[in-house]
Amino acid sequence: MRTQVAIIGAGPAGLLLGQLLHKHGIDNVILERQTAEHVLGRVRAGVIEQVTVDLLDEAGVGARLHADGLVHDGVQICVDGVRHRLSFKELTGKTVMVYGQTEITKDLMDGRAAVGAPTIYSAHDVALHDFFGQKPRVTYRAGGKSHEIACDFIAGCDGFHGISRKSVPASAITAHERVYPLGWLGILSDTPPVSEELIYVHHPLGFALCSMRTPTRSRYYIQCSLAEDIESWVDERFWEEIRPRLDDEARERLVTGPSIEKSIAPLRSFVAEPMRFGRLFLAGDAAHIVPPTGAKGLNLAASDVRYLSQALVEHYAEKSAAGLDHYSERALARVWKAERFSWWMTMLLHRISENPFDQKLQLAELDYLFRSKAAATAFAENYVGLPY
Ligand code: FAD
Ligand code: PHB
Questions:
Q1: Rounded Cα–Cα distance for residues 98 and 47 (Å)
Q2: If DSSP codes are grouped into helix, strand and coil, which group holds residue 92?
Q3: Sorting pLDDT into bands at 50, 70 and 90, what band is 388?
Q4: Pocket test for ligand 2, best of 77, 188, 198 (most atoms within 8 A of CB)
Q5: Any long-range contacts for 247-251 (C-beta under 8 Å, 24+ apart)?
Q6: Among all ligands shown, which has an atom nearest to the Cα of 198?
Q7: pLDDT of residue 149
Q8: Atom 38 (ligand 1) nearest CA
Q9: What's the CA-to-centroid distance between 297 and ligand 1, angstroms?
């Protein structure tokens, strides 16, 4: 088989890239290790920046998002039982959209099926070859047979644990990493959210987040230790842990119920530099990870895809290498700003240090955020997404 761009991974990055390339007449094949059902079963992101919404519109998959997505004008931060509101609308004129990653993935999969572009699910032993030369290839196994795809470029969109980044010789790549000593235990439940807006909670018992998917479906997270065993978290235990971290009003409004999904995500900051290796380009979590506190991971995957799709379109339509040559630098400039913001929000809101000095600094910084218009504006600008 031959294609122009072989895309590894059918997460949001790979599917969005495939859709944008197809729109510009660029052939592409997606290879995904899992089944489509497995990919759709992963509950992850919930907050989408306006620039990501715009890109999904450009890809022609925004209809359901506009019909069902919830526009949020602001966010709330609860510090030791007292809630504060930060209005994105007033501070920046912008808003964010709350719409689940699983829904975005479904919209992208449906869009891809509608145009008949190929995705090979359950592709095993994917291997990348010769990307430093002129004729890259990808090999894989599916249906008990070995296959090979010859291509012009490979897009590594296969997430943090994927094969693309690992295929690059160690001498060609630099990894920057910070692992936090905690994770997020998240549950999804068909209960109404405690508030119309997200509530990020700072509390001596630890961080919590009250989020949502729809007016009848809530998503809650609490900070947990990395050693935690998910099996030991029966639903009742989760509700008992989150309840005391909330303010009185939220506690009163909290409706508990059975969870329909429960998972633990470790918190990590990671950046691999550069993001281009000959004819291989990394995009999304394959190249960088942020802790989920700033809601930036999927949005960064989308911004990488924006730069990469434009660069590939320029390459094929205008025979210009400029976009491809600048891809890594442009993407990384945005990545590092999101890394900084996600690290800052993580350090501000979690119980990480038992040193009272560090805890007092957190409270002083939160107080400054609520009192200073400049600090609140900086927060809001980063949360809603910086302009390209
Ligand atoms: P992935 O979604 O990881 O997709 C990679 C795909 O590649 C997967 O389908 C995988 O199966 C496939 N793959 C892996 N290895 C191979 C292989 N060898 N061969 C073939 N295929 C392979 N981000 C936000 O912007 N906002 C939020 O509110 C937010 N909240 C989050 C909450 C949680 C709890 C978590 C865990 C994450 C959150 N994120 C959020 C981050 C977001 O989910 C990720 O950044 C996003 O999924 C990255 O998309 P991706 O396509 O780059 O990678
Ligand atoms: C979510 O709804 O899953 C969510 C929201 C905000 C975050 C992270 C996750 O910062």
A1: 5
A2: helix
A3: confident
A4: 198
A5: 247/78, 247/81, 247/82, 247/83, 248/81, 249/83, 250/78, 250/83, 250/194, 250/195, 250/199, 250/210
A6: 2
A7: 98
A8: 45
A9: 8
